[in-house]
Specification:
This protein has 393 residues and is mostly helical. It folds into 2 domains: 7-50 and 295-392, no CATH class; 54-257, Rossmann fold (3-Layer(aba) Sandwich). Helix content is 47%, strand content 7%. It has helices at residues 7-11, 41-49, 54-68, 84-96, 113-126, 137-151, 156-172, 184-188, 205-209, 225-228, 236-242, 249-252, 257-268, 292-303, 307-317, 323-333, 342-349, 353-362, 384-392; strands at 76-79, 101-106, 129-133, 177-180, 245-248, 369-371, 378-380. The strands form 3 sheets. Strands 1-2-3 form a 3-stranded parallel beta sheet. It is globular and about 70 Å long. 45% of the residues are buried.
């Protein structure tokens, strides 16, 4: 029997699984908060968004742009992979506020054809200067495997680069304003400390994005300082010398991923995937990386929260679907195995199928999963549809 990680102790999640009364998210998402009425922080924030004076926020954005606009050079760094959200943010700043963005991308582990094409369309159709960063392939393969084994997330090396590379570019080009799209902590559920302000503290990166495991801490696992150099952030001294401020477009503009999708199609040549993304029902989010599906699959393994749960929860908050529709979508698609690129994943990490499944099973939270044996195998102890049926009985 594979020894399993204590998910409750590791991530501080509750042992009793409960679901938000408005959406499909559970209290197993790290850092999420539920109020006394059983409503998650992301749903409360979605409610709050509808009370905001967005014309006033647009004026605040205009003032921010005026503050950071330069006579020459770049005015703002916008991280963008060519996807819908970064494309909207960069284009909106350029056209609506006459800013000159320098866009940057931390490269996926293994590009998909549609991901690479959307980036090229963004640069050529949208008309943006762009910097692409990537680490050497040997080091990245080691980090992907280490992330899978030690953190239960093969995407961890990508998260290091995605988080730190824009800071490196901001320092290199002496651009103080760094504009992201949404604040994932408040839009999807997490630490609400930044819910009512436009900025993010750089000091929160380790807690919010690195699962307590920094690139430096992996040196003991057979990596050298040179191996991890590309993933590192500039020093705080360098960051403070430039005066970098991280802002969120979602603070200044009503954030709606589906509307961003339509905007990006019209203005930057964005194209959805012709195939449905495994594990969910959509075709237009997180399309860039062939390893992407294993990041979402491992969230399902660790927390019982798969890709369809995250997508449906946001669309319920946005008023696109009902909670009942969301539950049906979760029941149908959540936890679907990302088989399309399974062999790519095994080849990239050097794992055998046996090793892969052993690692997966080691990350199954004991309060979430039960091995029922036989043809049934692993099953969720408390899926949302079963809990809803019990409550309504």
């Amino acid at each position: 029997m594979t020894e399993r990680v204590d998910i409750v102790a590791r991530y501080g999640v509750p042992r009793e699984v409960k679901f938000c009364k408005r959406c499909t998210i559970s209290n197993q998402r790290p850092r999420i908060v539920f109020d006394e009425e059983g409503i998650c922080g992301a749903c409360r924030y979605a409610e709050y968004k509808r009370s905001i004076d967005w014309e006033q926020r647009e004026d605040e954005l205009a003032d921010l742009c005026q503050k950071f606009r330069k006579k020459r050079g770049y005015d703002v760094i916008v991280p963008c992979s060519g996807g819908k959200d970064g494309s909207f943010t960069a284009h909106y700043l350029k056209v609506r506020h006459a800013m000159t963005p320098l866009t940057c991308t931390w490269a996926p582990n293994v590009y998909t054809d549609i991901g690479r094409q959307n980036l090229e369309n963004f640069i050529d159709v949208g008309g943006f200067d762009h910097v692409l960063g990537r680490a050497n392939g040997n080091a990245n393969r080691k980090l992907v495997r280490l992330g899978f084994e030690r953190i239960g997330d093969p995407f961890q090396s990508f998260i290091y680069g995605q988080t730190n590379f824009p800071l490196t570019i901001a320092v290199k080009y002496d651009v103080p304003l760094l504009m992201y799209g949404e604040n994932g902590e408040v839009e999807y559920g997490g630490d609400m400390k930044n819910a009512y302000r436009p900025t993010r503290d750089i000091e929160d990166h380790e807690k919010h994005y690195f699962s307590g495991v920094t690139p430096e801490s992996l040196i003991e696992s057979g990596l050298t300082e040179r191996d991890i150099e590309a993933y590192m952030a500039p020093s705080m001294k360098e960051i403070e010398a430039v005066g970098i401020e991280i802002h969120f477009m979602g603070y200044y503009h009503f954030w709606d991923p589906q509307e961003n999708f339509y905007y990006a199609i019209e203005h930057t040549g964005f194209q959805p995937n012709p195939l449905r993304s495994e594990g969910t029902y959509s075709k237009y989010a997180s399309l860039d990386d062939q390893i992407d599906g294993f990041h979402y699959y491992m969230a399902y393994i660790k927390f019982g929260i798969g890709r369809a749960t995250s997508d449906s929860a946001h669309e319920i908050r946005d008023g696109k679907i009902t909670r009942e529709e969301g539950i049906a979508l979760v029941r149908r698609f959540d936890g679907e195995f990302p088989r399309r690129y399974f062999q790519v994943f095994l080849d990239y990490t050097g794992l055998t199928e046996e090793e892969f499944y052993r690692i997966v099973d080691s990350w199954r939270g004991e309060h979430i999963w039960e091995d029922r044996g036989g043809n049934r195998g692993w099953e969720l102890k408390s899926p949302i549809w079963a809990m809803e049926e019990e409550e309504s009985a």
